[in-house]
Amino acid sequence: MKIYCFLLSTILLLCLHKSTADTKPPHCHDKYTYSEVLGQCWSVVSDHTDTISEAEFHCKKFHGNLVSIETLIKNHAVSEYFDKYAATHSRCHNRGWIGLYYESISKDYQWYSGEPKTYTNWAKPPTNFSLQVGVYYDFATLKWDLADKNSLYCFMCVSPPEVYSCKDVLMNNPNAPSGEYLINVQGELVNVQCDMTTDGGGWIVIQKRDDGTTSFYDKTWQEYKDGFGDLSGNYNFWLGNHAVSALTGSIGPFKLRVEINGDRNGTNTDKTVSWNGSFDFRLMPEFTNYTLKISNASGSATAGGWDDFTVHNMYPFSTIDRNNALYGPCVSDFHLSGWWLKFCGMGSLNGQYVPPIQYKNGYGYSWVITVPNDIVTPVSSRMLIRETN
Prior knowledge:
By secondary structure, the protein is α+β, with helices and mostly antiparallel strands. The chain is 18% helix and 31% strand.
């Protein structure tokens, strides 16, 4: 039976390899190789041995986990990788840690990766439910068994393929949920929030403003460069000019989507009443003072060419401590800072949440819409970018 299963898995592996031979594999981190079977990048560590917790820590340094095994096919793939890269090393003792550990709350074994436990391959059903044990893969028997968690074994790490945008994430996994992801931005790993549902998904959220609890208009140049706020949930944040400039300058061209929700100046503060605009977008490097390049405006949040972006095309970014506006009071009096400013324009999505002078006329947090043609004081807003190629 073991020989039959092994042959079956090998045939399936070969078929999968043949069907994907003409497809360029996703890029992996150094020392990792992409596996179509695992759907991830993998690396067998056999040059040293670790305890199971040390092994998991090693994997996390490369943004992954100890391998999880959810199917028979993956079980045999892991067997082949271990057999090829670890079985000949005497220090491995024919054993390699996998990512199954005892979790005290559920009182059961769980994968470090959080994957569901849909498949098991125990040498014998475990009776030792203890925090002091870990699960290893026996290269000789192709079975799983328990060992003291401080035992020193080789191990196998898996990590997601290296991606350069949220669109990459979605291409690798069409079912990827919205949330926080790690992407490569010109060699630097950056945490971003991805929207995988709006208008086809694959958007990087660069601004999210849900209420007035986070002040935007009085943040410094350095804070806007680095980014601020919390990307992990429904919180206010700015991704950071450094990251946005690097993104739009490396894998562009990009579209910018602006979403405006509600109007505190009018009678309707319902967030479901919304407007959106689309623009061709690029943010230039810091030596240009993060100059804005914007064109091809369309949508209900663009006001026929006199919205805040079109007016300020090819003008630099301004903050409270670096005022690059042609008219200084745009920052000091009207509290539009944290934005691109020629003159004051008709609004700023990073302006003061409660306008400093009055509602309506483009002071503080405001924007121009076309349906109806008006200046609104939003309840909330988002700015999202996605490459167009």
